[in-house]
Design goal:
Immunoglobulin-like, 2 domains, 147 residues, three-stranded antiparallel beta sheet, 15 strands, elongated, 46% strand, 2 helices, 8% helix, five-stranded mixed beta sheet, mainly beta
Amino acid sequence: MPLLKYRLDTGAIEAVIQGSHLDLTLAQRVPEDPTYGYVLAEAQHDPRTWQEHYYVVGRLVTPRDLLTLTATPNPVPSDGVTVCQITVEPFLPCTVRIHGTAYALTEADPCVLLTSDVPALFRVTLEAPVHAWADPLTVEARTDATP
């Protein structure tokens, strides 16, 4: 049974502790920790799944909401003119990263517009609030793409 170490302020799971015996696992807790809480999880997942797809609310392990990154059109012509619109569905204010550069999505500006004048692959990731997640997206700019 894994022991999840999570931030008390956000619920983000930061570590998954597993031992050969439950008493050894529980001994990893830090009593009176002002930053982290600890909760035993019933299910078995790899540490990455726990950290990317779950968080803790009121000592309850909770699945994060799935969001979808969308790029239209994809692939996009690499003509320097055609615009690819990147959005998050369902929409919520968040940050999208394209090759590491951050772009804030807000109610007033809910998408990122991307153009390219050369063939390229663009990796798009989401910095979502702790209660949500999305799979990364690849946008391809190609000379033979049509809008």
